[in-house]
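Recall the central idea of this unit: under ordinary conditions, the amino acid sequence of a chain determines the structure it adopts. In this exercise we apply that idea directly, starting from the sequence alone.
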Amino acid sequence: MKRSAATSPPVREKTPGKVIASVGLELLLLAVSALLFALSFPSFLSQWGWFPLAFFALTPVFIVVHRAGWVRTVLYGAFFGFASYALYNYWLGSFHPLTLIIVPPIYSVYFLAVFPLLKAADSLFPRYGFILQALVWVAYEFVKIQGFLGYAYGIIGFSQYLFLPLARLSSVTGVWGVSLLVVFPSALLGNALKNGFGELFSFIRRMRIPILLYAGVFAAVVITGLFNKAQLDSVPKWKVALVQQNVDPWKGGNKTYAKTLEILTRLSREALEEDPSIDIVIWSETSFVPAIDWHTRYRTDRVAFGLVKELREYLSAQTVPFVLGNDDGQLAKDERGRDIRVDYNAAILFDRGEIVETYRKLHLVPFTENFPYKDRLPGIYQWLKDADTHFWETGTEYTVFEAADVRFSTPICFEDTFPYLNREFVRRGAQVLVNLTNDAWSKAIACEMQHMSIAAFRALENKRTLMRSTNGGITCVIDPNGRILAMLPPFTEDYLIAEAPVYASEQTLYTRWGDWFAILISVLALIGLAGGLLARLLRP
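Accordingly, the structure predicted from this sequence is:
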């Protein structure tokens, strides 16, 4: 018997108290998720990170996305973006006074868009929306590393750098396949718990096929990763000395430059005396600041020229090649045809004091190294200049050096966090990737470990050895299988002598095809959202 309208139960509107309680609970869930997200990576609580947390860290996000209305979902996206990156990248405040004003707000804007997309997936597909939500998340991660604002920190797959059997999937799919396997349990649990714990077991029964499929794929990936390793026993070894001077060369002017040079040459001498069979000595990013080529040619600064002369005299007496980071000044023409000096963040290969070749950084740090919108946004450009921002010119060449019969490339600073860049170095013949970095400014081990953990995926994706020479950490050697072979403690003055495997007999699927998997996931996410919306609009 049907109920009449008169006997139907009245719709109960939420009282202001219930609304406040609901909002408070949802903000708490998002704060917990932001904290779990940050702790999944190297953090202020664990320098290695707690990677198992990543598999359910985002569960509260998916619960809140289901519970909240559309307006609150948008606002919650802004809250989560800011909170997660303020906790995860807390050390940015030491890099530049503007970074904490820039990075978390940027992610607030990103998640203003991402959360409604997650909400749409849940709304359009009430039963299987969690699958589409996982695709949307990976698509967002791929989009966020593109263009001027590209920033690879926070890709959830990078949390698995210690779980090597899983991380080795990146040689096929890039980090994107790892991210999909990591975020899927959070999306699944978020869907299971969106109405509370009461429906958890019935949900598991209903979704046993997707759960079993995920478990099967995960097990297959891990088992394959246990055996899908480069065989390194018989490959040549490149003996390197990585020098960690533990001084931020940009602080203090000429006195600091002189002090840094003394430390670098002393540590290099000690390393070469300890092991005369070293093939190459590598210093960190801008380990020597005065522009070597510029002051050799033009001698515009007497003190700087004296330091350059001292350095070149030292290098000319060495029998092994050196690679060092430098502020490379070059003569160029401005828009009016006048001669001006332009500067590049560069890595320079020296042999007996002579410059053999120079690599100039291709992917500059947005806002603090590069701002290409000077003409369109002159106010912001001047604001950055007034905040003592040092802008660089952008390099144009994917340089591959050769020394001691080894071909290598030198991504600088956070360039080792971008998959596309390092893949291109390998495609052009690099047998080893050598990152030069200055992370000493952070004064935080978490910063240095986060950087290293992301860089480890460049070794895994391309099955090439990656080594890092830093001024304060993390100086290390990572083999093509993702194992850390040797590492210096952070914030110590020391050198690391290590034998780096030179493995180049295999080109991975990722090296050949690049971000094919991320593009596929992005297309599927777009088709899913568009198809669901179209079906909703056409439904009677």
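The first strand starts at residue 237 and ends at 244.
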